[in-house]
Amino acid sequence: MIQILTTGGTIDKVYFDANSEFSVGDPTVPEMLTESNIHDGYELRELLRKDSLEMTDEDRQVVFQAASESSFDRILITHGTDTMAETASVLSTLEGKTIVLFGAMQPARMRRTDALFNLGFAWSAVSLLPPGVYIAMNGEVFEAGSVRKNLEAKRFERV
């Protein structure tokens, strides 16, 4: 069984107009899991609905607390990409669990998005990786503490 914790981020964004005003909407993971033909083997828990640039240290502690108190050994966390590496670092002190953070560069509600691929890739990663904290984005897995988002290239890379 896999615990899925949602925190918001681009994956759940809803855009309202051409000026790119947005809000973080309902989690898109349930619909994406159905579309991927995954109907069981997980438990979903919504923690936050925030853009990751608005996440605070207190929010990261909410995520840490939820992961540490979870009875599950395998945990997926949806997260905005801008501060995903920071949250992964906070979680890296947890032992005995396989935790994978993932998100999207384009909202799941858009026609062209990497969200569905990233979910499938993260699902595989959390199922196969040994205990530790990881980021799974765009076909690559990075260990917590050794990754950053390259804003210019719009991708994650090892540091």
TrEMBL record:
Show the InterPro entries listed in the entry.
Asp/glu_Ase-like_sf, Asparaginase/glutaminase-like, L-asparaginase_N, L-asparaginase_N_sf
Mind telling me which residue stretches traverse the membrane in this protein?
115-137
Q: Give the first-level EC class, as a single word.
A: hydrolase
Q: Note one Pfam family from the annotation.
A: Asparaginase
Domain (L-asparaginase N-terminal): give its ranges.
Answer: 2-150
Keywords from UniProt, A to Z, are: Hydrolase, Membrane, Transmembrane, Transmembrane helix
Please name the GO terms that the record assigns under molecular function.
Answer: asparaginase activity
Superkingdom, natural source: Bacteria
Q: Which PROSITE patterns match?
A: ASN_GLN_ASE_3 (PS51732)
> What EC identifiers does the entry list?
3.5.1.1
Protein name (Swiss-Prot/TrEMBL): Asparaginase domain-containing protein
> Which organism is this entry from?
Marinobacter suaedae
Provide the organism lineage as a comma list. Answer: Bacteria, Pseudomonadati, Pseudomonadota, Gammaproteobacteria, Pseudomonadales
